């Protein structure tokens, strides 16, 4: 049995047996209490019946001797302790009279002699018409010790409770063993597969059955493994892409230098211009890598200040207006006149907007449109940048912010960028406690980037 199965088994067992013990104690107490109440009510009914009989006899003028005989017979039969008194408290007949003379001797009388403090007196008046003429005092026991019939009854009930508790206990042990194993089996399997995934083996998946939380966890685990598998593939492809991006300009420069050295290529203005272009490509790539490192650094060392995000956004749009006009792309602004403020870094915001607008212009064709809107929603500043460009496939959406990832694998750094612009954007957004997500219905359906930051406007 695994550790977690054993823990679940013990917890279920403790809860079940705790419930059984509590139920047994409560049932035992409740049965005894109700049985005492039943015996009391039964005895009281007998005394009330005696009172009714005596009132009828008194109405017919019965003699005091016959009254004592009736009461004494009643005491013998019902084992109850009674005393007959007049209204002044003078004793007419006492149950002790007959007992002391040897007429009768009972356990209840002996108990009364030894433990008088355990007996309570209850008084019943005898009436002739509406006039009280005498009273009967009943010394009733608290019934701490039941008579033999009562003891037999309670013993049988307790024996039944004990047997039921034993059966329930055995059933609980078997059920908890089976349940704990069934519950932990997928978790243990998930633990084994997690070890394999941690070792770099992404081939295994969990079989999912049902709709409970464990099944949901298994599905999440499978999704995580799928994403890790894809990210590992991207990592390898990214390394290859980075090597290619560096190798191509370096190879070109190397060939030019060898040609000049061997006298096969003349170091004229055209050759120098081409070499300069390759160097610029290298510089762009290195600069982007530097920007990524800087963005990650800002995640650790955040510089916070109050920034007017509306103003920074307007300036970014103004910078890209000439480029959009040249490409025949319309930019529509929906930025309220009232300024919105966030906590962050103005340079980081400028880089974020520059990356997103550059990306939108790059993938939007002529006569297309880019719409920019800024709103205050539930104490957050929400920015949406929507283009009518080529869109992003559903397969590429989860990985669009990964390093060196490009949805179009045929693009090089000349046409498709370095593949780390959106990674930089995500890091900068998160450094400002913001969130970023992308939406796209698919190819040729356009793309929307949604950013949100905590608002400092107090609303």
What can be said about this structure in brief?
The chain is 58% helix and 16% strand.
Structure class: alpha+beta
Radius of gyration, CA atoms, in whole angstroms: 48 Å
Strand content range: 15-25%
The CATH top-level class label of the domain at 302-454: Alpha Beta
The CATH superfamily of the domain at 302-454 is known as Histidine kinase-like ATPase, C-terminal domain
CATH topology of the domain at 302-454: Heat Shock Protein 90
Give the helix proportion (percent range).
55-70%
Biggest sheet strand line-up: 6-8-9-11-10
Spans of 5+ residues with little confidence (pLDDT < 50)? 101-105, 112-118, 410-416
**What order do the helices and strands follow?**
HHEEHHEEHHHEHEEHEEHEE
Query: How much is the average pLDDT?
Result: 77
Counting DSSP H or I runs of 4 or more residues, the number of helices is 10
User: What sort of overall outline do the alpha carbons produce when their principal axes are compared?
Assistant: elongated
The tally of beta strands, per DSSP, is: 11
Described by strand count, sense and barrel closure, the largest sheet is:
5 strands, mixed
Could you say what the CATH architecture of the domain at 302-454 is?
2-Layer Sandwich
**Intertermini distance:** 56 Å
């Amino acid at each position: 049995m695994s550790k977690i199965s054993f823990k679940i088994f013990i917890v279920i067992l403790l809860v079940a047996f705790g419930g059984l013990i509590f139920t047994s104690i409560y049932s035992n107490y409740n049965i005894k209490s109700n049985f005492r109440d039943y015996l009391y009510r039964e005895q009281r009914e007998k005394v009330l019946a005696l009172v009714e009989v005596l009132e009828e006899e008194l109405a017919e003028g019965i003699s005091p001797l016959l009254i004592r005989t009736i009461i004494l017979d009643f005491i013998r039969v019902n084992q109850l302790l009674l005393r007959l008194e007049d209204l002044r408290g003078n004793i007419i007949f006492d149950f002790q009279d007959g007992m002391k003379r040897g007429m009768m001797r009972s356990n209840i009388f002996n108990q009364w002699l030894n433990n008088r403090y355990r007996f309570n007196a209850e008084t019943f008046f005898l009436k002739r018409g509406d006039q009280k003429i005498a009273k009967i005092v009943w010394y009733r026991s608290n019934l701490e010790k039941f008579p033999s019939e009562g003891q037999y009854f309670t013993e049988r009930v307790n024996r039944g409770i004990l047997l039921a508790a034993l059966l329930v206990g055995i059933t609980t042990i078997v059920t908890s063993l089976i349940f704990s194993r069934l519950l932990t089996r997928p978790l243990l399997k998930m633990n084994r597969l997690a070890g394999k995934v941690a070792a770099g083996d992404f081939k295994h998946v969990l079989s999912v059955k049902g709709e409970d939380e464990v099944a949901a966890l298994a599905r999440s685990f499978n999704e995580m493994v799928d994403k890790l598998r894809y990210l590992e593939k991207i990592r390898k492809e990214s390394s290859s892409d980075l090597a290619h991006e560096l190798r191509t300009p370096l190879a070109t420069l190397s060939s030019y230098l060898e040609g000049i050295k061997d006298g096969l290529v003349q170091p004229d203005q055209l050759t120098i211009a081409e070499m300069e272009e390759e160097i610029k490509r290298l510089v762009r790539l290195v600069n982007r890598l530097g920007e990524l490192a800087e963005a990650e650094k800002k995640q650790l060392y955040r510089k916070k200040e109050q920034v007017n995000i509306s103003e920074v956004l307007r300036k970014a749009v103004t910078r890209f207006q000439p480029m959009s006009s040249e490409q025949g792309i319309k930019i529509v602004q929906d930025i309220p006149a009232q300024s919105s403020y966030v906590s962050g870094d103005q340079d980081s915001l400028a880089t974020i907007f520059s990356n997103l607008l550059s990306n939108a212009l790059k993938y939007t064709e002529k006569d297309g449109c880019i719409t920019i809107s800024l709103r205050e929603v539930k104490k957050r500043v929400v920015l949406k940048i929507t283009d009518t460009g080529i869109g992003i496939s559903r397969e590429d959406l989860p990985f669009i912010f990964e390093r060196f990832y490009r949805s179009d694998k045929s693009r090089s750094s000349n046409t498709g960028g370095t593949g780390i612009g959106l990674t930089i954007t995500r890091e900068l957004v998160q450094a400002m406690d913001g969130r970023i997500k992308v939406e796209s219905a698919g190819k040729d359906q356009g793309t929307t980037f949604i950013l949100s930051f905590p608002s400092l406007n107090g609303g």
